[in-house]
Amino acid sequence: MATTIDMLNQSDLDQKSAYRTIEAEIQAINDLKSSVALENLSLALDLMQNATGRIVITGMGKSGHIGNKIAASLASTGTPSFFVHPAEASHGDLGMITENDVVIAISNSGESRELGDIINYCKRFAIKLIAITKNAESSLGKAATVILGLPKKGEACPLGLAPTSSTTATLVLGDILTVGLIERKGFSKEDFNVRHPGGKLGSVLQRVGDLMHTGQDMPILNENSIMQAVLLEMTSKRLGCVGFINETGDFTGMLTDGDLRRCLSASILNENAVNLMTKTPKTVNKEMLSAEALRIMHDKKITNMFVLEGTKPIGVIHIHDLLNNGVA
């Protein structure tokens, strides 16, 4: 049975092992920083940006797992991309690759036997091939249109066998390519939103126009309405506010249930709304991101904002609409 001292010794050994691994991985990234050839990087980005087809990523084993992630990152940021398993490519999936595509093949040694058919296919049909490898003189390196070199030092694995530092460097190199294309293409938050309609990112990147209440659901009255009508409108629409327009339909102000409580009196029902409303409330436009609208509500300590198109109200957004849709 392990003693307390044995457990403490093991904990110390585990911590030292963790530090060695972290340092080895950091060194791999620093080596990558030194080894990335600026000319080759720009050539690779040129090929990817100018491709009229897709970016096809391939790799075997751990390289393949990293390749899947790179393909997903590219696809989600505006560069059509997918992963092809090299073994499946040899059994029909080569037909997924066209002459308009650019292939990125990942192999630490550059001699992965399973990549042979894809390499030959690229050469046969003059398909641009970007190699990510440590060995420029390998079969993959010699066949490539452009080589992106990985650091040549060993792995973090104490045996020097399990892909660790090399896969970290490959992952970072994939991110370099992804970020480079984002910046070259001017890919925006709005573009990102189109590709991420679900989950937390989709919620945060929704626009006000996607969540606002419109038409018959919008509490809106003429500014000369008496407060009795205002109370009925506020109660029936159940958003805790009423907006007001003038004779030409321009937005002129709003009242909230909090405003009513502050000015409550025996004669309020006969008052005109124009005399009690807030005439310069905070408003937004339908293109504003929902996350920004929520920030404004928090900063201003308000729960409603009317949405204007020019000077006309087209909707109203409530803080509950934002929170219920996962914007936080």
Write the layout of secondary structure elements.
Layout: H1 4-35, H2 38-50, E1 55-59, H3 62-76, E2 81-83, H4 86-89, E3 102-106, H5 116-124, E4 128-133, H6 139-143, E5 146-149, H7 165-185, H8 189-195, H9 199-204, H10 208-211, E6 220-222, H11 227-237, E7 241-245, E8 251-256, H12 257-262, E9 283-284, H13 290-300, E10 304-309, E11 312-318, H14 319-324
Parallel strand pairs: 1-2, 1-3, 3-4, 4-5, 6-7, 9-10
Antiparallel strand pairs: 7-8, 10-11
Helix pairs in contact: 1-7, 2-7, 3-7
How does this model look, in words?
There is one protein chain. The protein has 328 residues and is of the alpha/beta class. Helices cover 46% and strands 16% of the residues. It has helices at residues 4-35, 38-50, 62-76, 86-89, 116-124, 139-143, 165-185, 189-195, 199-204, 208-211, 227-237, 257-262, 290-300, 319-324, and strands at residues 55-59, 81-83, 102-106, 128-133, 146-149, 220-222, 241-245, 251-256, 283-284, 304-309, 312-318. The strands form three sheets. The chain has a five-stranded parallel sheet with strand order 2-1-3-4-5, sandwiched between helices. Strands 6-7-8 form a three-stranded mixed sheet. Helix 11 (227-237) links the parallel strand 6 and strand 7. Helix 1 (4-35) packs across helix 7, helix 2 packs across helix 7 and helix 3 packs parallel to helix 7. It is elongated, with a radius of gyration of 30 Å. The model has no long low-confidence stretch (mean pLDDT 88).
